[in-house]
């Protein structure tokens, strides 16, 4: 079920001494909320707009404007995308599926960040890893985790390690990797049953499971309060900026806490919403790969 809304409006306008013409307006409201579900559905819907029907409609073909028959209607459609933030998927739709002949306009925002909303006074260590290409970005992130991050987790005797993961596909990949390593872990994802969630939270708090995998969508929809977190590792930054302090604040009250965040130059959109636009530009372009925040 979509919380966001797609509205397709057909406006008929009659003017004196002018030929009757039509205007189309596509409004995608709460785009950021739809992104928390599956933006590929929106992409599919837009792709099927302004297509010629497979069967002849019950109308007089002579009344259809020529540009519709020539499949040029998308150039006359006005598309309005509304949301609290943008991401690569939304940008892709804006760049490739919004084709109005009059051009297009994007509202750019400058963010101040949400680090001041983090309550515990802990060091938040941001580590930038290199990417070979956009296509291999996911593999580069996974390789960095396997080679640089996981060995430290595996050799540690302490539990209370939370792995926060934004994408469900990344969640599945890390789950399969931990299984192959016979790691002690539990799952808390958006498709987990309530019984499994309750059991995982209890096991993690009692120390029966060393690692917990936690997804952004699961937190977005349920806002679980996780107890026993001592070491927070953000495998990928959250899309929604308000989720970052909520997740980091689970460390409040714990001793010997640590917070590590992995990011790449491709995470600039997410990064600027969390640390601020100006610091994000520096972190992406700087020669040093490690940055520490402690508010």
UniProtKB/TrEMBL annotation:
UTP25 C-terminal domain mapped to chain residues: 115-293
Q: Which GO terms describe its molecular function?
A: rRNA binding; U3 snoRNA binding
InterPro entries, from UniProt?
UTP25, UTP25_C, UTP25_NTPase-like
Q: Name one GO cellular component term.
A: small-subunit processome
Domain of life according to the entry? Eukaryota
- Cellular localisation: Nucleus, Nucleolus
Q: GO terms for biological process?
A: maturation of SSU-rRNA from tricistronic rRNA transcript (SSU-rRNA, 5.8S rRNA, LSU-rRNA)
Could you tell me the keywords of this UniProt record?
Nucleus
> Sorted alphabetically, which PANTHER family does this protein's record hold?
ORF PROTEIN-RELATED, U3 SMALL NUCLEOLAR RNA-ASSOCIATED PROTEIN 25 HOMOLOG
Q: Which family does it belong to?
A: Belongs to the UTP25 family.
Protein name per Swiss-Prot or TrEMBL:
U3 small nucleolar RNA-associated protein 25
